[in-house]
Amino acid sequence: MHKVIFDTDPGIDDAMALLFLERHPDIELLGITSVFGNASADTTTRNAQFLKREFGIKAPVARGADVTFDPGRPMASWPTFVHGVNGLGDIDVPETIEDVPLDPRPAFQFIIDTVREHPGEVEIVAVGRMTNLAMALARDPEIAGLVKQVVVMGGAFDTNGNVTPAAEANIHGDPEAADVVFTAPWKVVIIGLDVTLQTVMTRTMMKDLALRGGPAVELLARISDPYIDFYSQQVEEGMVVHDSCACAYVVAPELFGLRSGSVRVVCGGVADGLTLQKPAGRAFGPSPWDDKTEQKVAMTIEAEKVVDLIAATLAP
Ligand code: BDR
Ligand code: CA
């Protein structure tokens, strides 16, 4: 059984990923930690509480960071044109979800405590800014040796970003935090735009899933409608299921081809948030990539099989 902490900024594709984690029989969801990103931390935390209730999830929600790891960094604006003003496609969501209390701890502390309760077992799936993880490492560096793996949706390696030509949203929103997470002595697998952009759930598939997956998937289909409109301008008619790809990796790593090598994030300047890997075994001059942990970056994906796995898990 995979014991997973889901670090997320819900977010429409985050909502799908959350339901995937909840419904996959080989996954035990230990907790949901929120972070700013697709909307403010107030909104993403409220959305996590809302989704917990609507999806019938038992795992607790812990509120996470509302500002970047480096307090001097100016905050980017929310991508309301992607996820809506409320992060969930602007469907009606109550302002507060009083019947779903938050865990009393901040997200970084929840992560530390949960990792220490299950040494060597916890897999963190991080699909928003890396701020909570960087804070947890800063507070308790020893957790790096106690986590089984960190699976990240973020970055763009041999392709362009989606916020700037250089940078993908989750990394661009807090590059310093991502650099801390990628260079820490733990195992990180990065599922970036190189592969996620190939995973498209069409509107027809969503409609069909909604008929078979019950009220939770109906809700997903409703919030996804404007997201599908947004992505249909860029890819085929449908939505890119970025965050579910990271969840799919946990249970089906064989569907991904990985490249090894240390990863750094450009912090500042014209390429702010650019992710760059030094492929293992290639000779370079001395560089800031030297002596950093070799991480894995997904370069290939069996996209159709990943989309099928997501669909079969949402509506078994
Ligand atoms: C990432 O950014 C967010 O908009 C999505 O939820 C996903 O995590 C894709 O770049
Ligand atoms: Ca996300």
TrEMBL record:
Residues 4-307 form the Inosine/uridine-preferring nucleoside hydrolase domain. Its EC number is 3.2.2.8. Keywords: Glycosidase, Hydrolase. One of its GO terms (cellular component) is cytosol. InterPro entries: Inosine/uridine_hydrolase_dom, IUNH, Ribo_hydro-like. One of its GO terms (biological process) is purine nucleoside catabolic process. GO terms for molecular function: purine nucleosidase activity; ribosylpyrimidine nucleosidase activity. Pfam families: IU_nuc_hydro. The keyword Hydrolase applies. It is an enzyme of class 3 (hydrolase). This is Pyrimidine-specific ribonucleoside hydrolase RihB. It comes from Martelella mediterranea DSM 17316. The lineage of its organism: Bacteria, Pseudomonadati, Pseudomonadota, Alphaproteobacteria, Hyphomicrobiales.
